[in-house]
Amino acid sequence: MMGDISPPVASIPVVEGNAQAMNSKTLLPPLSTVASHFGTSGLSVALATGVTHPLDVLKVRLQMQHVGQRGPLIGMTGIFLQLMKQEGPRSLYLGLTPALTRSVLYGGLRLGLYEPTKVCFDWAFESTNVLVKIASGAFAGAVATALTNPVEVVKVRLQMNPNAVPIAEVREVVSKEGIGALWKGVGPAMVRAAALTASQLATYDETKRILVKRTSLEEGFHLHLCSSVVAGVVSTLITAPIDMIKTRLMLQQNSGSVRIYRNGFHCGYKVIRKEGPLALYKGGFAIFARLGPQTMITFILCEKLRSLAGLHKM
Fold first, then answer.
1. What is the number of domains present in the chain?
2. Where are the beta strands (DSSP E) in 176-224?
3. What is the pTM assigned to this prediction?
4. Range of the domain at 160
């Protein structure tokens, strides 16, 4: 949680010729600090992803039930038992390699861009209220997803195909559907990432501020745990429908047949019309079961890693 930040001012005399160089040095952090900032963010997300990945596989399988039709849904336990019986325990880690790759890149950017963006808003508008935090989170999430969407597409495809190999899957997608297929679902993915990061980081940031102000909690494990639990609940409620639409679009095949969904809005409309409004929350419990612990692990680890690296708290 950051307070107001103003550009640092050099306290030693500077000769006129070197003034510009010294100014840039005082405003920009060292490269090692930047690397630590993004590195601790990416590592914490990757570790959290590794722990919760089986729940992500279950979530995708739940979301792909009865596509385009109504019908009784199998619960998370049923899907789990079905996977164990038909595909074995290894199926719970389908798509793990691209998931970890994406976590380092996406997580590092998503968490890493939040605070610099918030600082820029602070300098521009002289405010760090909750709206600024929401806007900063939305921007960081959208940019991170736009850059890493191909890895997410490959991950989702692998989770539905136990025999696929990451590189071979990329080649098949590009050869059959074109390079643009790697950005399939990028619109809903960016919306989801913006909503997730805005709700997750802004809620965590604001909850920490309120708890420190109104309770006896101080900076440390218990404050981070309480704040991350609240952030996990809020972000799940907001992002579950967007996540389901994103999954449907990413798994939609382009070649040889007419697409079922034209875009995210059309997908949402058809799902509500043919499968019912609650279908938007297919896999909702799995999302919370994954996102809740992942949020807690991510924030607690990130705070600890930042402390070890000598960086400020979130």
1. 1
2. none
3. 0.69
4. 31-308
